[in-house]
Amino acid sequence: MERLQKVMAHAGVDSRRKCETLITQGRVKVNGKVVTELGVQVNSNDRIEVDNIPIDREEPVYFLLNKPRNMITAVSDDKGRPVVTDLFMGIEQRIYPVGRLDYDTTGALILTNDGELSQLLMHPKHEIEKVYVAKVKGVVLKKTLRLLEKGIVIEGRKTAPAKTKLLSVNAEKGTSIVQITLHEGRNRQVKKMFEAVGHPVQKLTREVYGNLTIAGLASGEWRELKHFEIQQLKQLAKD
Questions:
Q1: Non-local CB neighbours of 171 within 8 Å, separated by 6+ positions
Q2: Given 3.10.290.10, 1.20.1530.20, 2.40.30.10, 2.40.33.20, which CATH number is that of 2-54?
Q3: pLDDT above 80 for 169
Q4: The pTM is what?
Q5: 102 an active-site residue?
């Protein structure tokens, strides 16, 4: 027996929290009866419907994608632009991205139908480590890196301490490449941080997400996560 909202999340309906909202709104039926209370237990034989549509109890699947540039981190786009799930032809499960990367940002992106894990990974309190490599305008000085490391105020709130490493400088072209490690996940945070210190980002890649790296994956390529990687990821989220 499992909690109804957990089963719904695993089936790819939505995150666990949003599934709880669907239940309290009276939009969920179990064996033909509307359920509005949280904590209801269901088994594999129970019929579950959301808005009168039966849900399929899919086995949870987990993928790591090296997201290309100029692609939307979503399952659909009302403007007809390419989305990351377009790359997963042949996958029967209804997967969706965990968090987001900007249209022009590349790198590590997890896709899954496990709504519970997705919610854990995106919750601010879990502080999953993410490593980015940014090509920025201008020659970055050590004192600027120290500012980023200590935290800077963007949109009225100071960023958490970060780790940085200057990888290279091209004085002739007036650009620098910087590695920055964050535990936060605020909207467009890396770009806003560099913008705030006078070094606009020209190119950005997320190379590491938690215990996962895009090493060995070409742009647009993906792979299914191994069992031990999934367990490590879950442990990071719970810690």
A1: 139
A2: 3.10.290.10
A3: yes
A4: 0.80
A5: yes
